[in-house]
Write a structure and sequence with these properties.
The protein has one helix and eleven strands. By secondary structure, it is an alpha+beta fold. Strands 3-4-8-7-6-9 form a six-stranded antiparallel β-barrel. About 20% of the residues have low confidence.
Length: about 170
């Protein structure tokens, strides 16, 4: 197929770490029945996906369900999260969970795993803080991809069969 690459400004790394939740956010409930899959916690609890009911949430409180180490990398599962996992061509969110830096966010077998720079203690209450500049830039670029794909389809009849957002480029494959 054909591909189209668009140059984008880098999202940068402009966020601050204040270590506590500011209270400038609201908690929303999510129906939990869809996520009763076996996660690192053995399926006892699952992650409430705050981003599905409020994509503009920037901070949240959570409890660490499990933290495992693999090849020098730490993967933390929380009881609730606003971190959007990598998927559909969109990179995973980053930011902070407690004192740990969240380098990336992944979804594996229905579980949202936060890749952190250090371990977190199971049962620990933490405050999650998103790198909002990075998240908001991704939201805008993802929405723009849908608009551009629609225009290309309308004008030329091509369907979007691939999409990838990098730090400097957006790639559409038709």
């Amino acid at each position: 197929g054909k591909s189209l690459e668009l140059k984008m400004p880098a999202a940068g790394n402009v966020f601050s770490k204040n270590g506590i939740c500011s209270g400038r956010f609201h908690f929303y409930s999510v129906k939990k029945s869809e996520w009763h899959r076996k996660c690192l916690s053995g399926g006892k609890e699952m992650t409430e996906r705050l981003f599905e009911t409020n994509p503009y949430i920037r901070e949240f409180e959570a409890r660490v369900l499990k933290c495992t180490e693999k090849d020098g990398r730490y993967f933390t599962e929380l009881d609730r999260t606003a971190f959007f996992p990598e998927g559909g061509g969109q990179p995973g969110d980053r930011g902070f969970v407690g004192e740990a830096v969240v380098k990336d966010t992944h979804e594996t077998d229905g579980c949202i795993l936060h890749e952190t720079d250090r371990p977190l203690k199971e049962g620990q209450k933490v405050c999650g803080i998103l790198d909002w500049h990075f998240r908001y830039s991704n939201m805008q670029n993802h929405g723009g991809e849908h608009i551009v794909s629609g225009l290309i389809h309308q004008k030329y009849g091509y369907d979007n069969v691939g999409f990838h957002m990098g730090s400097e480029r957006l790639r559409l494959i038709s």
